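Catalogue entry: protein

Sequence with per-residue tokens
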Amino acid sequence: MEIGKIPIEILNEHIFELKTARDDVLLGPDIGEDSAAVDIKGDIAVITTDPITAASSMAGYLSVVVVCNDLAAAGAEPIGVLSTILMPPESSQDEFVQILEEIKEACKRFNVQLLGGHSEVSPIVTKPLIVSTGFGKVQRHMLISTKGAKVGDKIIVTKTLGIEGTLILYNKEKERLRRILTPHEISEIEDYINRLSVIEEGLIARKYASSMHDITEGGLFGAIYEVCKASKKGAKIYEDKIVLSNSVKKVSSFFNLNPYKLISSGSMLITTSEEDDLISELKEKGIGCCVIGEIVEDTKIEFISSNGESILIDKLPIDEIYKVV
């Protein structure tokens, strides 16, 4: 592909032919359009942005998932995404089209509109770089802030930690990992692509949560650190109460990684004083969850290991994924 903007002919074939699928999307992607327009009819608009840097496989799909998860963590229903895609000069048209197809697949799956974006070939990147901006809406009384955690709130984690990180590592080192994983564990990891969204639990939990945070870069330690710092509170987390799948344990152990510092899209951290009602509704929808600790007044963030050791989480961790990818 040549340096510069992606040719209009390619975009016209793969993007501009899309029709807006939602009545509240007034202006979508088209030639020369640099902005999108959405009618939110008095609701609160919620906007977020994120890059995809660690993943190579399914990067386009993940670029949609991560911003939709951010919106869900604020209690917002995702409406649309804008995608900026920078391709290195040595990349092919097929690679670019693959990213577009993955973006479109995710948009269709999660009922969000591709609102537009920007694409070009640039010598400043050495591999495809995708930056997505997500747009959503929420009623004012259901808007959830990261800083809302209160003393006495229980800390709940949905699904199991390490889903995204394990999937990324498996796709990168598939041949090596197949030697240590059972057929069931391989099947489980390959299905993780279908468990990366926290939209459903976010829309459920917004009725009960004081704060929410999707567990992404830095894993559980990163998420609880940000919640506590934003809320000016502390936390006690108990390793014995945390659910990890065997596949996550095995992959983390193989690379000598701490699964609690591993990128974990697909899991939502929720603080709430209504844990029983929340857990009941999550389980009704088939969403697993566990109470792993509580929010405390002392601003110290304490992780109590299975052997009783107290570990302080006193800084934002570097994600374990970067030791491998």
User: Anything to note?
Assistant: The radius of gyration is 20 Å.
